[in-house]
Specification:
This is Phage tail protein. InterPro entries: Gp53-like_C (IPR054075), Phage_lambda_Stf-r2 (IPR005068). The chain is 26% helix and 21% strand. With 248 residues, the protein is of the alpha+beta class. Strands 3-4-5-10-7 form a five-stranded antiparallel beta sheet. It has a three-stranded antiparallel beta sheet with strand order 6-9-8, with no helix packed on it.
């Protein structure tokens, strides 16, 4: 039932004077509780003519804890938590997200291509902090190749050796020296491993604190496996000396 103008004015006066509460409205007017609920929900707000009075029947704005009136918006870039997105806004946001996903898909690299679909290899290597020359060269010990640790094999023992990518082999150890004057006079020693091609040089040095006992030391390379070591010091007994041999 609609309120008359007189009822509205009387009701407004009572509300303003706090002599009546909203819960007492049905008893103070000819409105039923159901009619009052419909008015407060805005369904039949034409029943209330006074704009001032309408505020008493209009629900408050909704919140996270209370239900109420919700304002709608077509915006897709708002962070307002007190308005709700319309279907149009949701559709627009979905379309933008779908297009972005398709753009990423067309620009992404294919896993099955194994980087064969990279458009600018030089730029990729630059971004990875890699030199184009180093990144595109093969493993090996030839020209324009890069050796890995398999080309640096070694035996780090007292009688050991070191192989280099160039094919050079460095060997070291302690050998015996004895006699002089003939090839057979020198003490016969063997390298830790045989040189595949040739021993290029052998250098020696005294051990201990009495170099005069050994005297001058020299070496004769017998073959890729053996060498003789001589000394000029007194006596004919064999004396130990250190050596380093280089070959390939």
């Amino acid at each position: 039932m609609a309120l008359t103008t007189e009822q509205e004015q009387a009701l407004l006066a009572l509300l303003d004077e706090n002599k009546i509460t909203l819960s007492e409205l049905p008893a103070a007017t000819d409105l039923s509780a159901e009619d009052l609920l419909l008015i407060r929900q805005g369904i039949i707000d034409k029943s209330v003519n006074s704009n001032v009075l309408k505020k008493y029947f209009t629900p408050a704005a909704s919140s996270f804890t209370e239900s109420g009136i919700v304002k709608l918006s077509n915006a897709i870039n708002s962070d307002d938590e007190h308005i709700a997105a319309t279907s149009k806004a949701v559709k627009s946001a979905h379309s933008i997200a779908l297009q972005a996903s398709q753009d990423v898909s067309t620009k992404s690299l294919s896993k099955s291509a194994n980087l064969a679909d990279v458009a600018d290899v030089a730029e990729v290597l630059k971004n990875l902090g890699l030199s184009e020359k180093a990144a595109t060269r093969n493993i090996g010990n030839g020209e324009n190749q890069i050796p890995d640790m398999s080309f640096f094999k070694s035996s780090n023992l007292e009688f050991g050796w070191q192989k280099l990518p160039s094919g050079i082999i460095i060997q070291w150890g302690c050998c015996l020296s004895a006699g002089s004057g003939s090839i057979e006079a020198g003490a016969l020693n063997s390298f830790p491993i045989a040189f595949p091609n040739k021993c290029l040089a052998v250098t020696t040095t005294h051990t201990g604190h009495s170099p005069a006992i050994v005297g001058v030391v020299s070496v004769f390379v017998v073959n890729n496996t053996l060498f003789r070591c001589y000394r000029s010091g007194s006596g004919s007994n064999e004396v130990s000396v250190y050596y380093i041999a280089i070959g390939y």
